[in-house]
Write a structure and sequence with these properties.
There is one protein chain. The protein is α/β, with parallel strands linked by helices. It has helices at 2-22, 180-183, 187-196, 219-235, 252-262, 281-287, 294-300, 315-327, 343-356, and strands at residues 31-32, 38-43, 50-54, 61-62, 64-65, 70-75, 81-89, 92-94, 102-103, 110-115, 132-140, 145-153, 167-171, 204-208, 245-250, 270-274, 303-309, 333-337.
Length: 359
């Protein structure tokens, strides 16, 4: 019996040793130094190839493996910003398991690296008064379900005060979620900073969940008009006329912004569309053979802009939309910048919009 127990103890110790020897080491990834050099690390001892796909550069970066099974890659002199990235391990994409800063998205899994600047960027966490993000639930009679949205209330907001606020309805991209504008786009920090600097009007920002599949995407327009706006105006001290409402969105959300805003200029006085994706049935229905009352629309809208990067895959499409609106005599401000279809540009577009609306 003693011999049997000794053998069992030996086997248990051996199994613990093997388990510990196979445990992944603790890694610092990504690691950013004071010279804006970023180092990525990933433990995959049996992998044949590991790449870093990052919006810092156009091409994937090949990682190298040491004798402990840790793959490493370094990029120097990175321009300050926040960048999505992922690892491709033997052809399989994955987020960085050592990084808790995750890109909120329903389709792909990415992580984010923050490269701070010597001068605080628009989205930087600064020592200024901060607003609050609340997770709220509303009854969508349009979609027949209970849905979630996020609400940013500005610094000093008190729901029982007599003060009223304007509202920006802010829509995410196609496979993003209602959390992407805060977790990736840093909309709350951008608003905090601009309000503190006196560059933006204190406002409430509503970030709904824009994906309504498998139902037609057009139902989201009805959801905004018939359900979301009434919910906000019932539960928050906000103005209830168009002069104090704005709508903005990115990519698919940018297309939704055009659909919602331009068919409801008596509801929204400000429309800001970022790199809009418009190859949808709803957009074709709304704007094919469109015969708008340009004078009425131009009178109703205090600001209408469409923003896009020159390297954006939607650049030519956006130019076509701009030309169409101008041909219809709709006054639209084009905002053309460098860069592609990225959340780095989205933050810039949003910061610009917050300085323009409700003035």
């Amino acid at each position: 019996m003693m011999i049997k127990n000794s053998i069992l103890s030996l086997l248990l110790c051996l199994s613990l040793y093997v388990a510990q020897s196979q445990r992944a080491p603790r890694l610092s990834s990504p690691e950013v130094d004071k010279n804006n050099t970023v180092t990525f690390r990933h433990y995959a001892p049996d992998a044949k190839e590991v790449l870093v796909n990052t919006e810092i550069r156009k091409e994937p970066l090949v990682m190298t493996k040491n004798d402990q099974g840790v793959w490493t890659a370094t990029i120097t002199k990175v321009k300050p910003d926040i960048y999505p990235y992922s690892f491709r391990v033997d052809g399989v994409d994955m987020a960085d398991p050592n990084n808790t800063y995750v890109f909120e998205n329903e389709r792909f899994k990415r992580s984010i690296v923050d490269i701070p600047g010597k001068k605080p960027l628009a989205h930087a966490l600064r020592n200024v008064p901060h607003g609050k993000i609340s997770y709220r639930y509303y009854d969508s009679k349009t979609l027949g379900t209970t849905r979630r949205l996020l609400v940013y209330t500005p610094p000093g907001f008190k729901s029982q005060d007599s003060k009223k606020y304007p509202v920006l309805y802010l829509v995410h991209g196609g496979s993003d979620t209602e959390e992407t504008w805060t977790k990736v786009g840093k909309a709350n920090l951008i608003a905090d900073n601009l309000i503190a600097d006196g560059k933006a009007t204190p406002m409430i920002i509503v970030m709904p969940y824009g994906n309504v599949r498998p139902a037609p995407m057009a139902d989201f327009t009805k959801d905004v008009i018939n359900d979301i706006i009434p919910f906000i105006e019932t539960n928050y001290p906000v103005y209830s006329d168009a002069a104090y409402r704005a709508i903005a969105g990115f990519s698919v959300g940018g297309g939704q912004t055009l659909n919602i805003g331009l068919t409801n200029t008596d509801t929204f006085a400000y429309i800001c569309s970022y790199a809009p994706y418009t190859a949808t049935e709803e957009f074709a229905k709304n704007f094919t053979d469109w015969q708008p009352d340009a004078d009425k629309i131009n009178k109703n809208l205090k600001h209408f802009s469409i923003s896009v990067g020159k390297d954006d895959f939607l650049y030519e499409s956006v130019k076509g939309n701009l030309a169409m609106f101008k041909q219809k005599n709709i006054k639209v401000t084009p905002i053309i910048v460098s860069g592609g279809h990225t959340w780095m540009n989205c933050k810039l577009f949003l910061a610009n919009s917050l300085e323009q609306i409700f003035k």
